[in-house]
Amino acid sequence: MTKKYKISLMDGVRVDFPYGWLLVRKSVTEEGITIRIEAKNEENMNKIKSLILEVLTEIPEELLL
């Protein structure tokens, strides 16, 4: 996995940024994944949202199954 982001594998895959975080994990209620974002403000949230596809391609599929 990339060393570009600080990543934690506890309770899904969490990616930490200096201005917030992104959590990707398997949904417990349906087939699919859930994505949660927390940021210091809307501008930072939009920065994280713009990185979602890049980050998701870095996560090994077996971590999301």
What brief labels describe this structure?
1 helix, TATA-Binding Protein, single chain, globular, alpha+beta, 4 strands, 4-stranded antiparallel beta sheet, 65 residues
Write structural notes for this entry.
The protein has 65 residues and is an alpha+beta fold. The protein has one domain: TATA-Binding Protein (2-Layer Sandwich), CATH 3.30.310.50. Helices cover 26% and strands 34% of the residues. The chain is built from 1 helix and 4 strands. It has a 4-stranded antiparallel sheet with strand order 1-2-3-4, covered by helices on one side.
What is this structure's SSE topology?
Elements: E1 6-8, E2 13-17, E3 20-26, E4 33-39, H1 42-58
Antiparallel strand pairs: 1-2, 2-3, 3-4
**How many helical stretches?**
1
Distance between the termini: 16 Å
Low-confidence residue ranges: none
Q: What is the β-strand count?
A: 4
Average pLDDT: 84
Q: Mind describing the biggest β-sheet? A: 4 strands, antiparallel
**How many structural domains can be distinguished in the coordinates?**
1
